[in-house]
Structure formats: C-alpha cells, structure tokens
Amino acid sequence: MDNYRDFLKPQPKIIVDLLESAIIKRLTKEKRGQGFGMDYKPFLTVRDVPSKGRVHRRPSITHGRIVHLLSDLELAVFLLFDWMPDVIDIREQFPLDPEKTLTLSKRIGIKHPAAKGTLQVMSTDLLVDFNRDGQIISQAISVKYRDDLEDPRVVEKQELERRYWEKLAIEWFMFTENEIPLTLIQNIKWLIPHLYSYELDKSAQWSTFSRVLKAIETFPENKVAIVMKQLDEQQSEKAGTHLQYLRHLLAQGAFTWDMSVINHRSLRTGQLLPSEYWLNEDNEYVYAQ
Questions:
Q1: For the chain, what is the domain count?
Q2: Is 232 exposed, middle or buried (0-12, 13-18, 19+ CB in 10 A)?
Q3: In terms of domains, do 68 and 38 share one?
Q4: Are residues 50 and 119 located together in one domain of the fold?
Q5: Do 76 and 135 reside in the same domain of the chain?
Q6: Are residues 156 and 241 in the same domain?
Q7: Which residues constitute the domain of residue 104?
Q8: Looking at the DSSP assignment, which residues form a beta bridge with residue 56?
Q9: Per-residue confidence of the chain (289 residues) as pLDDT tens digits?
Q10: In 68-116, which residue ranges form alpha helices assigned H by DSSP?
C-alpha cells in the first residue's frame, strides 16, 4: 500500500520542469508529505495557503503531532477521525503524485490544476489509516463546503482526486457540512481537553471511578453537573473538581453515552453507562505521550 508515496523519489525531468521551485523544495528538501505519525510533515501548512474561514493548529490525540487544518469544516472532520479508537494515523494535506494526476487528467479530459501555466501538486485533505482486526486500511478524505461544489471546476478537481485514489485501490470519501454530526462534534470538543488532564495511578483510577459511579447510580435522574457538584460538597473539594474528573473519565472511556444524540449540556446521570473494562479493573488508561 506504500505505492501512493512513490512519487517522493526522483521525478522525471518533464515533471520537475513543470513544477515551481518552491514546490520542489517542499517535496525534496523539506520532505513535505513524508513520514508517519509524529514524523509526518503536511504538504501544506496554515501559512502556505489562504483558507475559508479560520485555520487551526492543534495536537492530535492519535499521534500527538500538531496538525494543520485549513477551515472549521476540516477541523470538524478531523475531530471525528481523531476520536475513533481504530484510527492509528491521520495525515493532513497529503500530496498526490503529479505525474499520475497529470496523466490521469489527460486521459479523462479534465484540465489539471495549474497557476499561470505552472503545474500544481494536488493534495487530499486527510489520509486516514485504520487498524481493523490487524489489517491496516487507508481512506482518503476530501473536505468541501456545499457552496464550493456549485462551482463546476471544483467538481472536476474532486473527480480527478477520486479517480486518483480509485486507481490505487484506496477508498475516497467526501465530507461536507451536511455530513457533520454537530452534537457529536460538540461532545468531542467538550471531552478532548480532559483526556490528559490527570495522570491517575491504578489506585486513583479505581477510587475516582467508583466514587463517580456510586453518585451516578444514587441520583439517576439528575443532570450530571448537579450530581458532580454534590460530590464536591461531600468531599470538601473545590467547585467543579468532580465535573472535571467525570470529563476525564469520559474521555478515557470509563463511561459512555449516545454522543451523537445527547448533548453534554443536557446529559443526565441515568444516560451514562459504565465500561465493562473499568468495572472489571481491566481498562487501558491512556497517558500523555
């Protein structure tokens, strides 16, 4: 499956001559588009291109690297994959082999992206690797706002990108704002900052989990914020302490709820389910890298 990065080897002179020297520098000297996990360098960064709306630089919980996302929509899609437990790598702004895209564009009759006659290297917004039952599977993800797809030229370039990945036998998907589960994204944003907010040893993990579980089972109809406030008072803790503990435990998978349907602001204790792994003290606690 590594054949999609073969173009990082020396290119035929005709391709080199069609690329800007700045692009050649990115691909060769700066080694953009190469590496995995913490070592990957995106082909484009937030400084390289104008964005639609805000740009984002943020750490990934999958590999700990600072990722470069060029719009709010890219951030939302990235958060979805970064939260998935079977995702093992996410590479943003992944460059496509210009020799292959140029050949493909001529074959299917779609004009290749260029600027002032200079060939441009196309890129895919996210290249995601999954570990599914021990098999590594890659998916290419394009992120586009619906309004942009009203432009026939944008649609043409999307088709060129789709066929590129199809030829490599890698699934390609497009995400627009219509495909974003807003409630799930809001919940993920609520939890992510608390994934590494504590580093509890095994004893502290179990005692904190047990204390929160008992409170949840005692008051199953109340909002979680109210029950956690009661715990603070019982334990003579500063206000907000147990809500932060709960968010940490939720981010660590100690409890689950239907995150796609129920917003955390309206979450009640009876809607939380304790993890069987935590109940059996067989959980895998995630420490900061």
A1: 2
A2: middle
A3: yes
A4: yes
A5: yes
A6: no
A7: 2-180
A8: 69
A9: 455 555 444 454 544 554 566 677 677 777 888 899 999 999 888 877 765 568 888 889 899 899 999 999 999 999 999 999 999 999 999 999 888 999 999 999 999 998 777 788 899 999 999 999 999 999 999 999 999 999 999 999 999 999 999 999 999 999 999 999 999 999 999 999 899 899 999 999 999 999 999 999 999 999 999 999 999 999 999 999 999 999 999 999 999 999 999 999 999 999 999 999 999 988 888 887 6
A10: 72-83, 98-108
